[in-house]
Amino acid sequence: MRYFAALAVAATASLIPAMAVAQTHATDVTGGALDTGDNGWVLVCSALVLLMAIPGLSLFYGGLVRTRNFLSVMVQVGAVVAVVSLLWIIAGYRLAFGEATNGWIGTGDTWMLGHTIDLLRGDSAISERTFALFQLTFAAITPALMIGAWVERARFGWVVTFCALWSIVVYAPVAHWIWGDGWLATTIGTKDFAGGIVVHTTAGVSALVAALLVGKRQGFPKQLMMPHSPALAMLGAGLLWVGWIGFNGGSALSADDNASTAIINTQLGASVAALVWLALEKFKVGKPTGIGFATGAVAGLATITPAAMYVSPGGAIVLGAVAALACFPMIQLIKHKLAIDDSLDVFAVHGVGGITGSLLLAVFLSPTLGGVGYDDGVTMLLQLFAQAVGVGAVALYSAIATAVLAVLVSLVIPMRVSEDDEREGLDLASHGERAWEFD
Q1: Which runs of consecutive H residues, i.e. helices, occur in 183-256?
Q2: What is the CATH number of the domain that holds 292?
Q3: What is the biggest distance separating any 2 CA atoms in the chain, rounded to whole angstroms?
Q4: Which of 20, 198, 400, 423 has its CB surrounded by the most CB atoms within 10 Å?
Q5: Would you state the torsion angle of the CA atoms of residues 349, 352, 355, 361, taken in this order, to the nearest 10 degrees?
Q6: Confidence of residue 111 (pLDDT cuts 50, 70, 90)
Q7: Long-range contacts: 402-409, Cβ < 8 Å, 24+?
Q8: Is residue 8 part of a domain?
Q9: Which residue range is the domain that position 80 belongs to?
């Protein structure tokens, strides 16, 4: 016993210097330019964005599928968020926000967030690791958005593997191009406040390509495939809406009027889009629906995202209305005219919304419309050109890279489950569980 007691004393003594060093590091950071208010605000926003994915997106998508596939959607979202979170810390953050040297990909010694414990993020007053955490939540939810394109038929192993690789090959480079001082931001002048291009264009275009490659669900489009729980879908959309406050408000990276502007505009864009969507449904099908309200709100949120801090509240109202007017007919075009089974309308809502907001940003930046104005020497037409180049380059890259990745992964893990498994439902076939006692 004396031997073990001596070991315990020695171990405790050895920890004292280490604890002192750790305390010294913390003091050094706090004694610098770190603003604990801003830092705390971004930490809270990180939690809000994670709320968007788990449980927000899980419930939104889960309520839109048929009963026997509800659990499979939730497991896919959870697994994708988990694996991308891991990869982001290992390599993704460095590729997206490492030192900008060539304009295409981040460099520098930031693997596994090494050598960043005492560093502030650029000119901001938040810590590097707080910034990395906030960006982690963006990286995690973006591939999870694509799950809506292949629900009820994609193989679980393929989904997780594809999304993991996609986060490194597609998301991280695009984030660097625009947010990491890459070529689109510095050479072209493309702007994207919180992800109209980086998040919604990449996910929307990639989802459309993936839906084409995976193929249609059995019975689509002739068989009516109704959402099993509009109530759960509305609950999920509500969580997305609330979480989006962190998504856009946190992108200001400070607890100041910029964050307030982004949040007000986010609320207005979602509200107007939801109301206009209900009006369109009333005119088109005779009744405003809960699913319509939820879908309209998400379309408005996606559309205001790239412009949230740059435009006036009046501009946000217009963007919200345009979001509904653009995304509503796109659902009809994709599903009914082109018969593409993008099951939960990822491209029509997120892709079209993000692209629309990114382009109209060039218009509503104008000071005459209440926007923050253009950079020196830049006009509305030049900014519109920069936005169009950014959207076009990202859409093209996302489409090609998605097609290549999806096919390569399918050589090892097939994209689709068997026909019998699809009929049985992926809850039981893929996971051996049922979300409900009945089907």
Answers
A1: 183, 202-214, 230-249
A2: 1.10.3430.10
A3: 84
A4: 198
A5: -70
A6: confident
A7: 402/166, 402/170, 402/205, 402/206, 402/209, 402/210, 403/209, 403/213, 405/162, 405/165, 405/166, 405/169, 405/170, 406/162, 406/209, 406/210, 406/213, 406/214, 407/213, 409/158, 409/161, 409/162, 409/165
A8: no
A9: 34-431
Give residue 100's pLDDT: 83
Average pLDDT, the chain: 90
Residue with more model confidence, 112 or 60: 60
Q: Please tell me the total count of domains within the chain.
A: 1
**Beta-ladder partners of 120:** 127
Single out the residue of 179, 173, 172 nearest to residue 196, CA to CA: 179
Q: Is 306 inside any structural domain?
A: yes
> Is position 14 within any domain?
no
The verdict on residue 356 lying in a domain is yes
The tens digit of pLDDT for each residue in 235-272 reads 999 999 999 999 999 999 999 999 999 999 999 999 99
**pLDDT cut 70: percent of the chain above it:** 90
In this structure, the number of other CB atoms found within 10 A of the CB of residue 24 comes to 11
Give the whole-angstrom CA distance, residue 325 versus residue 273. 8
Copy the structure tokens of residue 318. Answer: 């217009």
Q: Residue 109 in contact with residue 123, Cβ under 8 Å?
A: no
C-beta atoms surrounding 257 within 10 Å:
10
275-334 pLDDT tens trace: 999 999 999 989 999 999 999 999 999 999 999 999 999 999 999 999 999 999 999 999
In 3D space, the residue among 377, 383, 253, 376 whose CA is nearest the CA of residue 311 turns out to be 383
Higher-confidence position of 178 and 3: 178
- Are 367 and 312 in contact by the 8 Å Cβ rule? The answer is no
Q: What is the CA radius of gyration of the chain?
A: 23
Which long-range CB contacts under 8 A does 371-380 form with residues at least 24 apart? 371/310, 371/311, 371/312, 371/315, 372/309, 372/310, 372/311, 375/189, 378/189
